Amino acid sequence: MLLAREAERLEAFAQEIGAEAEPCDVGDRIRVEEVAARVGERHEAIHLLVNNAGIAAGGGFLDVAPERIEQVIRTNYLGSVWCLRAFLPLLRRGAPSDVVNIASVAGAVVGPKSGPYSASKHAQLAFSRGLASELEGTGVRVHAVNPGPVPTPGFPQERAQAGRLTRRLVVQADDVARAVLRAVEHDRRETFIPWPFRIAAAAQGLAPGSLSRLTARLRRHR
Ligand SMILES: NC(=O)c1ccc[n+]([C@@H]2O[C@H](COP(=O)([O-])OP(=O)(O)OC[C@H]3O[C@@H](n4cnc5c(N)ncnc54)[C@H](OP(=O)(O)O)[C@@H]3O)[C@@H](O)[C@H]2O)c1
Question: Is the pTM of this model over 0.85?
């Protein structure tokens, strides 16, 4: 079952892989609830929900339009919340079942000029961590997968691919898909891909001030 906004592309892809398509903006709570009700009429239960929909903000808090900041929060954070709430009855019926939230390294560390996106991913990661505790013992397991740079249509990651150091940290969409499967198979609560980003997340926790000054310096040198 695939959800995305662009109906034509979605339906063509669903046909290619033998899936069902439900065009939907995940930031629109009412539409998500309608889709979940329709899915419930066709399927008794679901075993896996992947909250993957996400958009870039395209700049810092002072660069982008206020409407874009709202859209980023609605899609990246609230989209996961609305999908989880709407599909939870089907996930409970399918238990043991899994929820995978595709958050980001930006959910743990704030990069230069990525404040609005990072704030949405911090919220999504907090949602994932809180939800994992809320659903403990219910048979619905919750996992967060935090990718670093992955070249995709929405996030071309040209700068990361060009940098001498950063290009070593670039992974492909297939690597993220494998990380999702591993997270589910081994019941991993939180995965960083590639793993060295876990060190950056630890540095954020241990020395937030130093990390903030370092990222500001990196931004000035760009
Ligand atoms: N690529 C990276 O470097 C990177 C790194 C860390 C985390 N991530 C996260 O990984 C996830 C996937 O991103 P991607 O890199 O694959 O980006 P992408 O190529 O732009 O794909 C994003 C997907 O989300 C869908 N989408 C966007 N807004 C939506 C909405 N409101 N409702 C329903 N579907 C929506 C898009 O389809 P429609 O446009 O048709 O709706 C598209 O299928 C995102 O959550 C992103 O934040 C990406």
Answer: yes
